[in-house]
Amino acid sequence: MTHQPALSALSATDPEIAGLVEDEARRQHDKIRLIASENYVSPAVLEATGTVLTNKYSEGYAGKRYYEGQQVVDKVETLAIERAKALFGVDHANVQPYSGSPANLAVYLAFAQPGDTILGMALPDGGHLTHGWTVSATGKWFNAVRYGVLKETGRVDLDQVRDLAREHRPKLIFAGGTAIPRTIDFPAFAEIAREVGAVLVADIAHIAGLVAGGAHPSPVGHAQVITTTTHKTLRGPRGAMILTDAEHAKAVDKAVFPGLQGGPHNHTTAAIAVALGEAARPGFRDYAHGVVANARALAEALLERGFDLVSGGTDNHLLLVDLTNKRIGGKPAAQALDRAGIELNYNTVPFDPRKPFDPSGIRLGTAAITTRGLRPEHQPRIAEWIDRTVTAAAGGDEPAVERVAAEVRELLAGYPMPGYTV
Ligand SMILES: *Cc1c(COP(=O)(O)O)cnc(C)c1O
């Protein structure tokens, strides 16, 4: 079993690193990967990231660069931009942000001044660090006001969003987050933003693939600015994009370069273009809807086993499970599940009485297992394995955890992993 593309030069030059890459490929092959922000990229995306494009400096934008020799890179970046515009139906795309966090920082730089008020979702309720959370630069340099979810429903409290927006008149409002299992109501956010004269930023880092594949409503036409990573459900390389209407395009471009970044990562840009090309094909719609179908099936199977899901279920790729009634913390549960071959992360749940490094919940997502070819009929088994592992961990029964790991490996042997040949 080897990494694909093969690592022949790397193995010869640096067997230590080559060995570690092979170990990681094997690990990814042997795990049911339920980390909601992860995926498996295609061999084509992997190949694009490993090209000579990494050798080139290209500060600026196509036709307006600061170094010579951009004949090819200009074409690559233009292709990525045109594909992003067509896929999402937007006026403008910037494909240079190094990742999701710098993309959001560029939006602050474009539309706010230090000390200005911004409104974002609180991290413990499902927001992202860069939406103004305390420990983030965005929370230190801006006056961040935070909304959350309703205790009874686990869903975003839009009345609170409206009240806070009216009271604080933020420059920016962020819609989106990292642990939101339900459809984001972009029209409702847009109405609030319009009323108070704020720029609405839809951060679709998690759901971009679902939006592209028609499995989640699009923020286009509601949010003036859309930020996204390219490596989560969108299934591209680690990177990000900022999509805007024509009016906000120039400010965003200036903020990314020269405001925040130097030279773009051209090998990543090429891989983003490849991923966007893949996302425009009909099979990607099947994938996106398959991700949601798998999440629904997994939610149902977990509910049947008495698991407590925040908001009672899911509309997208993501589930948030409160383990309080299973008498185990999120961290020991996540660690036991990893030993059982089920990889996910411990997570706070809204109104969590426990500490962030030892919270009450776990977060699960179905993008990677859908790419791998698992379907709704597999979800009851995964739920059973989760249940058995959590019970075993709570009772200190390590052999039971190991029995699950063996069953997981056996199932996965029938589902090849992109980037690895058996
Ligand atoms: C993942 C994520 C980001 C940040 O992406 P990085 O690439 O990890 O910097 C930003 N916003 C949201 C909502 C995310 O889920």
Automatic annotation (TrEMBL):
Main location: cytoplasm
Modified residues (N6-(pyridoxal phosphate)lysine): 232
CDD domains: SHMT (cd00378)
Cofactor: pyridoxal 5'-phosphate
EC class: transferase
Segments forming domain Serine hydroxymethyltransferase-like: 10-386
InterPro entries referenced in this protein's UniProt entry, alphabetically: PyrdxlP-dep_Trfase, PyrdxlP-dep_Trfase_major, PyrdxlP-dep_Trfase_small, Ser_HO-MeTrfase, Ser_HO-MeTrfase-like, Ser_HO-MeTrfase_PLP_BS, SHMT-like_dom
Keywords assigned by UniProt, alphabetized: Amino-acid biosynthesis, Antibiotic biosynthesis, Cytoplasm, Methyltransferase, One-carbon metabolism, Pyridoxal phosphate, Transferase
EC number in record: 2.1.2.1
PROSITE patterns (alphabetical): SHMT
Ranges in coiled-coil conformation: none
Presence of keyword Transferase: yes
Compartments, as annotated in UniProt: Cytoplasm
Gene Ontology BP terms: antibiotic biosynthetic process; glycine biosynthetic process from serine; methylation; tetrahydrofolate interconversion
Residues flagged as site, Plays an important role in substrate specificity: 231
Pathway(s) of this molecule: One-carbon metabolism; tetrahydrofolate interconversion; Amino-acid biosynthesis; glycine biosynthesis; glycine from L-serine: step 1/1
NCBIfam families: PRK00011.1
Function summary: Catalyzes the reversible interconversion of serine and glycine with tetrahydrofolate (THF) serving as the one-carbon carrier. This reaction serves as the major source of one-carbon groups required for the biosynthesis of purines, thymidylate, methionine, and other important biomolecules. Also exhibits THF-independent aldolase activity toward beta-hydroxyamino acids, producing glycine and aldehydes, via a retro-aldol mechanism. Thus, is able to catalyze the cleavage of L-allo-threonine.
Subunit structure: Homodimer.
Protein name: Serine hydroxymethyltransferase
Organism listed in the record: Amycolatopsis arida
Gene name per UniProt: glyA
